[in-house]
């Protein structure tokens, strides 16, 4: 019953899409368990590049069943356009399964996301503006709309009216916006219902039966550990649980079923949106990482903030996720630096701190304590085994492994599927 969780160990964009796609050929199901189309997962297959937002990256592997679990928030218009975009490129999407319990991102959730960010001004979170937070807020407030509600018109009408009652007061009186008509929202949502119906299924039952039948299930996280609503740099986080526990609640699978938890870890650090980032660089090194690493958001097109590797964060990810392995990505991007600083601890108000502080104020005051490792200049993109790497690159990987607290079982040396060094098998 091998069930694997693959998740981001930093602030997202670690290369989860590539890693999932790599494993996709050997697994039976790939399941998204949280988040929505705030994600942007890039997969490069041969000369083809795909940017997936809502769909699990396993959709590109013909033998694999892609699943959108109950913990995901689904924007139906994005879902349908992503599906038709893939169909036009010859990708078969007919196996997709969507939980009837997944919540729907309605047009008013998107509006609320945008106006609240504008209202926050300088204090904004820097969300993707896709309605993610307001949709999860409605879920928790028990005024959410679920996929299954699309198939009962009168229930849908009642639920949309209930959700809009309070929202229209806030939109008109606080934000000075026009009220949103429930009838219009219902009409739009009903327009999606029949197109989505073929995919809707009892995904909890199907996934648990698959595990009983010894099928291999891969849970693909969106975002990353430090963007987790509980364990991230709150309030500068997303509104779901990308950490390993989220796979259980977001897919309806018990923790005893999970056999492996793989943390995707970039060889340096990036972040999009607001919030603290101790190793962030504002100099030409940061600019070079952005340029060489192509660090521009897949979803919003924003430049990613860039900085050196932070081992404190990696250790934290190992702990809160119970990581069994790391998949280190983008090692090739570091080629050419004579020396590479790595953050091994923080200095907070004059004291050395080895572990991530729980206090928001302390984390905002954290200054990186660096150790400098020797770099390498040889091209590593065609390395196929660990021993193909230059000695200094090997030492960099070993040092990161030691500091991070879990074995590095694969190394990415380029964006393509085969630009990967596999050290320990994941399956
Ligand atoms: P995700 O959100 O975690 O799936 O990551 P993104 O797709 O947003 O960003 C990762 C970027 O790095 C994508 O453009 C990938 O194609 C690329 N990528 C992934 N692994 C590697 C790697 O090992 N080397 C290089 N150079 N690029 C990589
Ligand atoms: P993938 O899956 C990086 C960030 C946003 C913002 C915060 C909250 O590609 O790694 P939200 O729209 O979720 O309410 O925004 O989270 N964010 C991401 N950053 N990668 C992502 O996804 C992200 N999804 C959300 O920039 O700071
Ligand atoms: Mg991304």
* Biggest beta-sheet profile: 10 strands, mixed
What structural class do helix, strand and pairing data support? Answer: alpha/beta
Approximate helicity band: 25-40%
CATH superfamily of the largest domain: Adenylosuccinate Synthetase, subunit A, domain 3
Q: Which small-molecule ligands are present, each listed once? A: guanosine-5'-diphosphate, 6-O-phosphoryl inosine monophosphate, magnesium ion
Q: Beta-strand percentage?
A: 15-25%
Number of helix segments?
Answer: 12
Corresponding CATH architecture of the largest domain: Alpha-Beta Complex
CATH class of the largest domain: Alpha Beta
| Shape designation | globular
Radius of gyration: 22 Å
Termini separation (Å)?
11 Å
CATH topology of the largest domain: Adenylosuccinate Synthetase, Chain A, domain 3
Secondary structure layout:
Elements: E1 3-8, H1 16-24, E2 29-32, E3 41-45, E4 48-52, E5 65-68, E6 73-74, H2 76-88, E7 97-99, E8 103-104, H3 107-120, H4 132-140, H5 153-174, H6 182-196, E9 200-201, H7 203-212, E10 217-220, H8 244-251, E11 258-266, E12 269-271, H9 284-293, E13 305-307, E14 309-310, H10 311-321, E15 325-329, E16 339-348, E17 351-353, H11 360-365, E18 367-374, H12 391-404, E19 408-412, E20 420-422
Parallel strand pairs: 1-10, 1-11, 2-5, 2-10, 5-7, 6-8, 7-9, 11-15, 14-16, 15-19
Antiparallel strand pairs: 3-4, 12-13, 16-17, 16-18, 19-20
Helix pairs in contact: 3-4, 5-6
The protein binds guanosine-5'-diphosphate (GDP), 6-O-phosphoryl inosine monophosphate (IMO) and magnesium ion.
EC number: 6.3.4.4
Binding site for substrate: 298-304
InterPro entries: Adenylosuccin_syn_GTP-bd, Adenylosuccin_syn_Lys_AS, Adenylosuccinate_synth_dom1, Adenylosuccinate_synth_dom2, Adenylosuccinate_synth_dom3, Adenylosuccinate_synthetase, P-loop_NTPase
